[in-house]
Amino acid sequence: MAAPVRLGRKRPLPVCPNPLFVRWLTEWRDEAASRGRRTQFVFQKALRSLRRYPLPLRSGKEAKILLHFGDGLCRMLDQRLQQHRSSGGDHAPDSSEAKSSAQEGPLAEVQDLPMLVPAQPKAGGSGSYWPARHSGARAVLLLLYREHLNPSGRSFLTKEELLQRCAQKAPGVAPGSARPWPALRSLLYRNLVLRTHQPARYSLTPEGLELSQKLAESEGLSSLNVGIGPEEPPGEEPEVPGTFSAELGINEGSVQPLLELRPGEYRVLLCVDVGETKGAGHRPELIRQLQRLHVTHTVRKLHVGDFVWVAQETRPRDPAIPKELVLDHIVERKRLDDLCSSIIDGRFREQKFRLKRCGLGHRVYLVEEHGSVHNLSLPESTLRQAVTNTQVVDGFFVKRTADIKESAAYLALLTRGLESLYQGHTLRSRPWGIPGDPESGAGPSPNPLCSLLTFNDFNAGAIKNKAQSVREVFARQLMQVRGVSGEKAAALVDRYSTPASLLAAYDACATPKEQEMLLSTVKCGRLQRNLGPALSRTLSQLYCSYSPLT
Fold first, then answer.
1. Cβ–Cβ contacts within 10 Å for residue 76, how many?
2. For residue 38, what pLDDT is reported?
């Protein structure tokens, strides 16, 4: 019996608006799956999201509005699209043709290719990013490129060196300015510039080197004479738009000069963290003891440490906001019960790590006795070992006191000692990340460190929950593994700056044994010792295991 004929209007099948992108994502997914790479799941999620999108996309950059499409995947699509056009593929119509074809009806969309409208390519551009002329990003790239080509150069520049060299072309940029630098942050975000070490060193990544070379060629600069821009005729000042200074985060007329405090113009003031004051109606015993000892102090929020000393201006122009420089000493106070809890919950290592990076050279760990040792949550041997490691391994000066009165007496003694140490010295400010006086920074010296951070820079740089880069979060993640110290995490991040780069290195290994030994030869610490096979095996299990860890 013949099947009954269905009468009525047929529902047209939906047409894929982006067949090229679907095809490329499918190819990348299948290739990753054949090699056993976990990126296959990334491509699969992006493919599922793209198939649900009903409109045509003009470029890979526009796909960023979709779920599971990041900067890297959008960049891959744009590069593949550019290769497709350069190899003689069908060219996409421009925006006007796209609009007219869209108005003709659904039949105009039934084509083998998506309606892709390319963004206007910029001469010599690398991908979709091409820094504008006279911009801060362009200047930084060319300066780093010139340093890279210099045979006697170091292949990197510090932020202070970049500011000084940019100031030659931008009068609004002052050496030593510590204001935000959006141009540099943008280059770090685009993976064109790499930041390493502390103080920070900036160098070009392979992508940044390629883009810098194209920038130099577009401006007609030779490889041996690469500057910020083309040579200007003698006697003429180069024209620098205001956007250049704006990108550096500094406006003309708003440059803050370096702070200088001469002898007699400042006093030494002890700053106590607000966490040391408990309750709203009374002051704790420590504050009362400091008052009894006539120690000049103030209570404020400190993002790192419990006590610091500042040189405060005695005759400020604005009495409400006196200028302050932080002296090169910081104290972290721990009662034994608090020390036990910080070791258990992990704050002990994290606080020491932040103290090392706070910008101050003399770090004191004040351990205060509290009750009987037998009533604590950790054995006495564990506490002694932790305190010994803090002094021997971390380089802190450890001071043990019997009670809170002795702690206050020690702080009073330090305050008077710093007053006499800095008496007769002229103090100057320095930006964050720049080392202080070389003659007083290395080893014991009778001269104190007179190149100091302002209190605002010190406190802002020590904020615990500030925005962090992928590199910094990756280092924190590595430090959660047992046996990975701060120095080992820094060495690993210098080799592989992101988790993606580490996973790519693991994917390139031919055998599981090679994966286990990948990180064993990474040099760590001052002695440049190998990371070792045991820790390398642990990390490979963490990042290469598909099943839950046992």
1. 17
2. 79
Residue 548: strand, helix, or coil: coil
Residue of 285, 382, 276, 372 lying closest to 333 (CA atoms): 276
Read off the pLDDT of residues 390-410 as tens digits, 9 standing for 90 and up: 998 888 999 999 888 999 999
Active-site residue, 31 included: no
Compute CA distances 435 → 155, 251, 310, 383, whole Å. 20, 26, 18, 34
Helix, strand, or coil (residue 327)? strand
Active site residue 328: no
Pick the catalytic residue from 210, 265, 276, 350: 276
Single pTM value for the model: 0.48
The answer on pLDDT for 180 being more than 50 is no
Q: Which helix (H) or strand (E) holds 363?
A: strand 362-368
Q: Which of 245-249, 378-382, 398-402 has the highest mean pLDDT?
A: 398-402
Is residue 441 pLDDT above 50, yes or no? no
Contact at 8 Å (CB) between 427 and 328?
no
Rg of the chain's alpha carbons, rounded to an integer?
30
Which residue out of 273, 313, 324, 457 is catalytically annotated?
273
Tokens standing for residue 226: 């690469």
HEC string for 51-105: HCCCCCCCCCHHHHHCCCCCHHHHHHHHHHHHHHHHCCCCCCCCHHHHHHHHHCC
- Total Cβ atoms within 10 A of residue 326: 23
pLDDT digits (tens, 9 = 90+) for 139-152: 888 888 888 887 77
The answer to whether 273 is a known catalytic residue is yes
Task: Report the 3 state secondary structure along 216-230.
Answer: HHHCCCCCCCCCCCC
Enclosing H/E stretch for 438: helix 438-441
412, two tokens: 């009073």
Q: How far apart are CA 297 and CA 545, in angstroms?
A: 54
Is residue 430 within 8 A of residue 176, CB to CB? The reply is yes
Is 391 in a helix, a strand, or coil? helix
- Is the CB of residue 309 less than 8 Å from the CB of residue 270? yes
Active-site residue (options: 147, 160, 306, 324):
306
Query: pLDDT (tens digit, 9 = 90+) per residue, 43-97?
Result: 888 888 888 888 888 888 888 888 888 888 888 999 888 888 887 655 443 333 3
Q: What pLDDT is attached to residue 518?
A: 92
> Cβ distance 331 to 304 under 8 Å?
no
Euclidean distance between CA atoms 234 and 220, whole angstroms = 18
- Integer Cα distance of 298 and 284 in angstroms: 14
Using one digit for the tens of pLDDT, what is the confidence trace for 451-479? 888 888 888 877 776 667 788 889 888 98
